[in-house]
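Researcher: Watch the backbone:
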Amino acid sequence: MRTLPATNIELAAWLRLSLAPGLKPAALRLLLSAFGLPEAIFDQSPEALASIAGEAAARAVLTPASPDFEAQLAAVVAWREQPGNQLVTLDDPAYPPALLTMPDPPPLLYIKGQLDLLHTRAIAVVGSRSATPQGVEDAERFARELSVAGVTVVSGLALGIDGAAHRGGLEGPGGTVAVIGTGADLVYPSAHHALARQIAVRGAIVSEWPLGTPARAANFPQRNRLIAGLVSGVLIVEAAMRSGSLITARLANEMGRDIFALPGSVHAPLSRGCHRMIKQGAKLIETPDEVLEELGFARAAKTAPVGAPPMQRDDRIQEDAAQAAASAVVRSAITAEGERLLAALGHAPTTLEILATRTEMEGAVLQNTLLQLELAGQLTVLPGGRFMRASHG
C-alpha cells in the first residue's frame, strides 16, 4: 500500500494541529468533521471553533506556532523522505481503519516499515517488563503461533513480555507492530535497538509523538490506548497487580475488544494481574488456538512445532534471567550460580533439561546448584524429576 504524499502546506497544517498544546484528539476530530481540512480550521473565528469543540480547543488551535516550528517541519519532511518512513494523516485512505473506531484517533502517525500491517487482523500480546523466563517463553511461543496463523502481533517494544512478543511475531507471516511512546526517530529502551531495526524492516513501528520526543512516563498510557485500538483482542501473559498491561486491557475493554489472560501459579507475583483480569471477565487462555477460535480467526498456515527453537535463544535467556533475578524474592547465602538458576526457574514446574537449556550450566554444576537451593529452602523437588521455586507465603 502506498501513501499519497501530502504537500508541505497540508503537512504543516496537520503538524501544527498535532503540536497544538492542549488540543485533544477527540476535539480535533470534531473540528475536522465540521470544517474539513486542517487549513480550514485555522481560518475560523474563536467563536466558531468554540461552538464545535469548546473554548479550550479554540484557544489551543489559535495559539501561535512555536518559534522553532519551521525547523520542526523541515525535520519531519526530511524524516519522511528516508526509505521506509511514512506519515499518515487522519484523512488519508491509508490511515489504520481500526483506529478510526476510537473516539480519539491521533491526527498524525509516524510509521517505519510495512504500512500494510496496520490494515490486518491483529492481536496485542503484552505483559511485565520484569518477566520470568517462563513468561518470556510463553509470550514468544504464543506470538509465533499467532503470526504463523497470519495474525499480526502488536506490542509496545518494552523489555520482557513485549520484546518476546515482537520476536515471536517476526517468525511468522503475520509479522509484528511496535507502538512506541517516544518519537519515531528514537528507540526506547536502548537495549532494543537491534530488535527495532528488525521490526522496521520486516514489521512496522508506529508513533503519534513528535520526532525527538523522549521517553516520559506520562506517554505510555497514551501509547497503550493505541495498542488497544489497533487490535481485535489483547492477551496478557504476565502482569503484576499494578501494571501498564492492565491499563491496556481496560482501554481495550472500553473499546469493545476481547481480553485474554494466561493463568499461572498462585505463588507467582506476575500471575496476580492475570488472575485479577480473569476474575473481572477476561477469558482464561491456555493455547494460541483458543485465542484464534475466540476471535474467529482461522489459521492461515500450519503451526510451528511447540518448542521449536526461537531465534537468538541464548542471548534472550541470559537477558531475561537477569531481569527475573533483579525482581526475585530475597535470597540469602546463595552463590552466583544459585542466583542464576533461581532466576531461570520461574514459578512453574520445570524439568532438568529445560533448566540446563536456560542456564547453560555444566551437568555437575547444575546438580550441585539444585541441591544448594533445595537445602536453602528456595527450591522444591516434585515427583517426575521436576523442580519448582519454593513458596514463602
Summary: The CA atoms of residues 125 and 235 lie 5 Å apart. Residues 1-6, 301-332 have pLDDT under 50 and may be disordered.
